[in-house]
Amino acid sequence: MDSPPPMLFASVTAFSMTLAVFLYIGLGVIGIILRRLRLRHGEVHWGWLRYLHYALGITLVLTILELMTIGILGASTYDGTVGHSSHLPSGLLVAGLTLGSAWAASRVHPKRPWARPLHVSLNGMLFLALVVVSWTGWSVLQNYLPKV
């Protein structure tokens, strides 16, 4: 069986990475709004806004896991190897920070005051990791584009 064309992997990963960045930005905006509401009005459940934050967070986790899967499958089927650039370690870092942030978010509760600062700190590190993985991904993508 022939392997899928490399541009298929490149197109799907480019779309998914763009989606991940927009999800991250949306989560950040909603997170800031939720923080301001919490500081102004105390620990009140903010209904649909809180659930939207959860839904976007779950979508981000699934998107990152999908990117890891496609990246590893694409590299192994097209090149026959995985890990020939710094993109793999930076991708693993993004995946780890995303999963860690999701875990910390699931622990946020007034009885666990350590969880919210951990969640926010991991998201700050995730921002830097997303910048690095975008940069390294762009260099990997250049290998799959036709030479002009």
Written overview of the protein:
The chain has one domain. The protein is 80% helix and 0% strand. It is built from four helices and no strands. The longest helix is centred in the first third of the chain and has 36 residues, at 6-41. The model has no long low-confidence stretch (mean pLDDT 87).
Shape: elongated
Task: Describe the largest sheet.
Answer: none
The ordered string of helix (H) and strand (E) elements is: HHHH
Quickly count the helices. 4
* Beta-strand content estimate: under 5%
* Low-pLDDT windows of residues: none
Topology, pairings included?
Blueprint: H1 6-41, H2 47-78, H3 87-107, H4 115-144
Helix pairs in contact: 1-2, 1-4, 2-3, 3-4
Feature tags:
148 residues, 0% strand
Give the structure's gist in a few sentences:
The chain has 148 residues and is mainly α.
